[in-house]
Every structure is written in C-alpha cells, then in structure tokens.
Amino acid sequence: VLSSFEAAQPLPAAFQQLGSTTQSARRLFEIVDTKSEVQNPRQSAPLPQHYDVEFRGVTFSYNAEQPPILRDLSFTVPEGSCVAIVGPSGAGKSTISRLLLRFWEYHQGSILLDNQELNSYSQEDIHRLISVVAQDTHLFNTSIYENLRIANHDADREAIIEAARQTQIHDFIMSLPQGYETQIGEQGLLLSGGERQRIAIARALLKDAPLLILDEPTANLDSLTEREILHTLRTAMEGRTTILITHRLVDLDMANQILVLRDGKIAERGRERDLMQSEGLYWQMWNLQHKVLV
Ligand code: ATP
C-alpha cells in the first residue's frame, strides 16, 4: 500500500503514479535531487508511546568529502514542548528535520524518539507520526479539495473546510469559480507561494500527528497573515512535540527552548526572554531583523 508522508492513510488511485513511498515522501519534501541511503530496520521497533525527541552528540555530513554540517549536536525536546531552531542560512537547521524524517542516515551520535534510536523505526512509521510544513509544498495534479484530503482520508468535508478556514485560505478558495473543485497543476501554478504554504499548514492540521516539524512555515506570508497563521499554529502545537525552524524571529516566546545554530553547533540556547537579556547572538539577530539601531 502506498502512503504519502504527509498523509496518514493509503492514497487513492490518482496518486499511485507517484511510485514508492520514499519517492513520494521525498517529492513532498522537495528533496528530489538526492538519493536516500536510508534502510529500514529488519524488524521495526514498536511505535513509540511518548513523543519526546533527543539528539545526543550527533555529527553529520551529507557525504564523506564534506566537513560536518552538524557537529556534536545535543538537545532534547520533551513531549508536547516546542523547540525553535534559528540561525543563519546554511547553519544546518533543515538538516536536523531531514534527519528526523529519516531521509538521511546518521552514523555518529544518537537520535532518540521515546528513548529508542530513530533508525530502529521504519521510515513509514516515522512519517505517519510527523506532520511537516516544509519550505516548498508539493501539490498534486488534482482538485484543491483532494490536495487537502490527502493529509487525512478520514476527514470529512466539514473538517477540510474548517482547516482551510483556520489557515485563512477558505475565502480565496471560495472566490475561485469552481471553489474546492478547482484543479491545480502539478506545479500548483494557480497558487501563490503563500497560498501553497497555507495548504501545507491546513494539511498538517488535518493530519493530526503527534509530532510537528515546521520549516519556515510563514516564509511566504505577509506580516498580517503571518500573525494570524502563527496564532493557528500555536493552537496546533498544543500537546504536540514541535520543531520550529525559522529565520523569522517573531512570536518565539511560544518556544519552550530556542537553539541558535551556527556552523552546525549550538551557539546559544534558552528561552526568548533569557536570550534577549543576555544580549548575545540571538539578541543581535533580533535587533538586525527588527531594524533597531544598537
Ligand atoms: P537555510 O536557512 O538557508 O534553509 P539551513 O540552516 O536550513 O539553511 P541546511 O539546509 O541544513 O541549512 O544546509 C546546511 C548545509 O548543508 C549547507 O551548506 C548546504 O549546502 C548543505 N547541504 C544541504 N543539503 C545537502 C545535500 N543534499 N548534499 C550536500 N550538502 C547539502
């Protein structure tokens, strides 16, 4: 049975052209250029009962010739809490989410989910447990309705519309002559970056998984929409273990812990108010972004 990584349920025939699970997962995560080296364990560990995540001394590079992208990285995300990962472009933030999604194998250190090595779970199980809002959303060549429903085939029309409302995309959909039945092309040409992103967030709400990875979830949104979406995300994060990757230092008081990543290492960590008070790297980044003269 094929299943997409954003979807919890088997896919309808229309999506079966996608090929293997891994392929569709990678397409959804827009990592089409790299070959997955991940192997499923011979016998998968039973599903976790708790959803706490720990990186313990993880050093990682994409290939042997490359210097490590992550260096001796350690942090824990207790179940139901939110860690925000910030830092300059290329620091390794998205690499953390790719490792968590088991797109790449780690060889040094441990990544633990419910105190079990991540690589003792199958990739399919991991994908069922995680909702992802990635930087670029894969859309399928079908209706907007089906593009939302792919996240959860048990969702009824009411739930789908509610998710679209919560992500501020319902009115736009209704303004189209065919509404939810509007067909969107493979590349989603009809939709702007911000609209695609809101579809992705609506999918995450519909999927209702215990772990949430948000990789620049508001990157393509204007600041008013960003505020509203952040409000929705805050609600969605309640009770879920969340990894929020962002370069936008907005509303980060919602994070129980912020990691400031630089060159694959944690340069600073703490709650927002503490990082602001200590006037270090986070504070500098915040001031630069908010254009305050220091
Ligand atoms: P941004 O904020 O720009 O998204 P980031 O902090 O998320 O950056 P990553 O995407 O994790 O950074 O990338 C970290 C480093 O790993 C970069 O130097 C990047 O070029 C490199 N990298 C990413 N993917 C691959 C890959 N598939 N093969 C080799 N190197 C890669």
Structural class: alpha/beta
Overall outline: globular
Unreliable spans: 1-24, 26-35
Kindly, what is the distance between the CA atoms of the first and last residues, rounded to a whole number of angstroms?
57 Å
Membrane topology: Multi-pass membrane protein
GO molecular function, one term: ABC-type oligopeptide transporter activity
Domain ABC transporter: 53-288
Keywords: ATP-binding, Cell membrane, Membrane, Nucleotide-binding, Transmembrane, Transmembrane helix, Transport
Structure at a glance:
With 294 residues, this protein is an alpha/beta fold. The chain has helices at 21-28, 93-100, 123-129, 144-149, 157-166, 170-175, 193-207, 223-237, 272-277, 281-289; strands spanning 53-60, 70-77, 82-86, 108-113, 116-117, 130-133, 211-215, 241-245, 257-262, 265-270. The longest helix has 15 residues, at 193-207.
Which helices and strands appear, and what pairs or packs with what?
Elements: H1 21-28, E1 53-60, E2 70-77, E3 82-86, H2 93-100, E4 108-113, E5 116-117, H3 123-129, E6 130-133, H4 144-149, H5 157-166, H6 170-175, H7 193-207, E7 211-215, H8 223-237, E8 241-245, E9 257-262, E10 265-270, H9 272-277, H10 281-289
Parallel strand pairs: 3-8, 3-9, 6-7, 7-8
Antiparallel strand pairs: 1-2, 1-4, 4-5, 9-10
Residues 34, 62, 69, 89-95, 247 line the site of adenosine-5'-triphosphate (ATP).
